[in-house]
Amino acid sequence: MGGHGLYVWLSYGLSFLVIGLLVWRVRSARRAFVRQARARAQRLSAEPQAK
Fold it and tell me: Fewer Cβ within 10 Å of end Cβ, the chain: N or C?
């Protein structure tokens, strides 16, 4: 790598770290959305139907 190995591997490591954090963030946001949607659906199904 011509003496640039440290920078190359740091770049790879940082890239994988950022991608991993993005995947983790998307999954946690999806879980929160699903949880809120289920709670909202449960709340709506428990309300009496107005005519």
Answer: C
Q: How far is CA 4 from CA 7, 11, 19, 27, 48, in A?
A: 6, 11, 23, 35, 68
**Distant-in-sequence, close-in-space partners of 8: CB < 8 Å, separation ≥ 6:** 1
With beta carbons less than 8 A apart as the criterion, state whether 24 and 32 touch. no
The single-letter DSSP state of residue 2 is T
Q: State pLDDT tens for residues 1-51.
A: 889 999 999 999 999 999 999 999 999 999 999 999 999 999 999 887 766
Please tell me the predicted confidence (pLDDT) of residue 51: 60
Domain boundaries, the chain: 17-44
Displacement of CA 25 from its chain's centroid (Å): 3
